[in-house]
Amino acid sequence: MGNELVQLTVFESAGTQAPAIASPRATPGSAPGRLRTFYIETFGCQMNVHDSEKVQGVLLARGMKPVDDHARADLILYNTCSIREKAAQKVFSRLGAFRKGNGGAGKVIGVLGCVAQQEGERFFERAPQVSFVCGSASYSKLPELLDRLEAGDRRVTGLSLDTEECFETELTRRDNPFRAYLTIIEGCDQRCAFCVVPMTRGSQRSRPSEKILAEARRLVEEGYTEIQLLGQIVNAWEDPSPARRSFAELLACVAEIPGVRRVRFTTSHPRFFTPDIVRAIDAHPALCDQVHLPVQSGSTPVLARMLRGYSREEYLERIDYIRQARRTISLSTDIIVGFCGETRQDFEQTLSLMQEVEYDQVFSFKYSPRPNTLAATQGDALAEDEKGLRLAELQEFQRQIQLRRNQALLGATFEVLVEAHQPRLGQAVGRSTTNRVINFPGSPSDVGRYLRVNVTGAGPNSLVGVRV
User: Fold this and answer.
1) What does the pLDDT read at residue 160?
2) Top-tier CATH class for 413-467
3) β-strands 413-422, 427-432: how paired?
4) Global pTM?
5) Cβ neighbours around 429 below 10 Å, total
6) What is the pLDDT of residues 116-164, one digit of tens each?
7) What's the alpha-carbon Rg for the chain, to the nearest Å?
8) Domain ranges of the chain
9) Spacing of C-alpha 72 from chain mean position
10) Each residue of 15-43: b (16+ CB within 10 Å) or e?
């Protein structure tokens, strides 16, 4: 994808159901008054999650307070993803609930992110209960937009794509106490046939290396031990500063900051994946031994129609770089099933590539046409039922690969960063540098600690172990 989505799942900052309440539209000439509380729900990838952290920081600096129930919020925000139709539909489903009932008078509803940028002012026609729309490049302008709403404006927008302010993070409210996201590049210039991101996040803009390193050092001083470098195509980053560091050199510099325990980066594009990235991972233990390298299809003709810029053989060359590393590097990928013109033979080429690479994790989805993309004009001949059958076949195929690979780890010991505790099971949930989840007996005090765990059991999606 032009925007290689690291995870195409939905991240939600609070509950999953919006109650039926009335439209918050102000009557002509009225104003909502001072907005004091806010609720935000996030859909999409780590980029969206980090964007929501930035938005929360702006709102907190304004004196507003977050609430975990939107019924108690003056301001309700949906931070949206448009990479797949299902995610966009979920947003409109949430908004539809605000047309019912009588409990929401005086509330303000805003839509942020990619769907907001994609729809622009058309959003007000599709969802008249919405009071403002704002794209990711304009979050620093939120105070100004909210001032206008409080003054009585009924419809405000922030839709500029020509700004570097997307990198301003001083006010970011970070939700994780030990892991911090750090955006190094925004936008995308690749124009993959299926991807709407260039239209919703704008052209590619790289952040200077010195600013990235200064923020990374500040994060370590604040107590964060894991840093995740983010970008639609993170390894397309080009240093605009006089230092002219390469992406691999940037990885090395971040990994060498005293106090950094782990560095991750996502998401990479095969076109920009070079051997020096692998050499950097080999040379710096703080760089996690895990790479997410989306392939999208194992068929060269399909990749050509997708405008991915590489063939199956060229993709496998990148895999060879990784397999030749001294460290064993875990691999994950994204795959689209049923892209325009995909034949059964094309699909079987994808299965054979999965068999050859043996990914540790695959994020797979049915193709859905997105507005303003080249693929949307090509027609989508494959029936939805057939797409569903192929997706189920692919996922079961990958499930068996993951089960086999995870069972091979029985007896191995990993250092994990404990991310959560499950009180009902009395288990801690840790994540290894290879991005594998390991559950083991633990306590709430383990959260945020680095512990060594020996693997005693394995399933297709996670491991079970005991603390060493």
Assistant:
1) 77
2) mainly beta
3) antiparallel
4) 0.82
5) 20
6) 888 888 888 888 889 889 988 788 788 888 899 888 888 999 887 655 5
7) 23
8) 37-158, 165-407, 413-467
9) 28
10) eeebeebbbbbbeeeeebeebebbbbbbb
